[in-house]
Amino acid sequence: MTDETPICSAKGCRAAAVWVLAWNNPKLHTPERRKTWLACEEHREHLSQFLGLRGFLKDVVTLAEWRQREQGSDSAADR
Ligand SMILES: [Zn+2]
Questions:
Q1: How far is the CA of 75 from the centre of ligand 1 (A)?
Q2: Is a pLDDT exceeding 50 seen at residue 76?
Q3: 37 C-alpha to center of ligand 1: Å?
Q4: C-alpha 11 to ligand 1 mean position (Å)
Q5: CA distance 39 to 13
Q6: How many Å lie between the centroid of ligand 1 and the Cα of residue 9?
Q7: pLDDT value of position 70
Q8: How many A from CA of 8 to the centre of ligand 1?
Q9: N-term to C-term CA, the chain
Q10: pLDDT, tens digit (0-9, with 9 covering 90-100), for 31-71
């Protein structure tokens, strides 16, 4: 992720993202891989339902918490 203001991943939505939905499609990704969607307050439920119905959803955290996690992990080397 960059330092630019992240935008919600919902189609047509330009709102600032507040939530990070971490997901994994076992048909495409190794189990430890995490794809992320960003969601504003309004779309968090819609997007997490979409992923949840398919069994892809792993985690829903605030953007602030997600960034803290990334800093705490090995990706800190990217900074
Ligand atoms: Zn949105």
A1: 27
A2: no
A3: 11
A4: 8
A5: 9
A6: 7
A7: 85
A8: 5
A9: 10
A10: 999 999 999 999 999 999 999 999 999 999 999 999 999 88
Place of tokens 């504003």: 40
What's the average model confidence in pLDDT over 8-36? 97
Q: How much distance in Å is there from the Cα of 44 to the middle of ligand 1?
A: 7
Go through the chain and tell me how many residues it has: 79
For the question of whether the overall pTM of this predicted structure is more than 0.85, the answer is no
Q: Is 44 exposed, middle or buried (0-12, 13-18, 19+ CB in 10 A)?
A: buried
Residues 40, 54: contact at Cβ < 8 Å?
no
Q: Are 22 and 59 in contact (CB under 8 A)?
A: yes
Q: What spacing in Å lies between the alpha carbon of 46 and ligand 1's midpoint?
A: 9
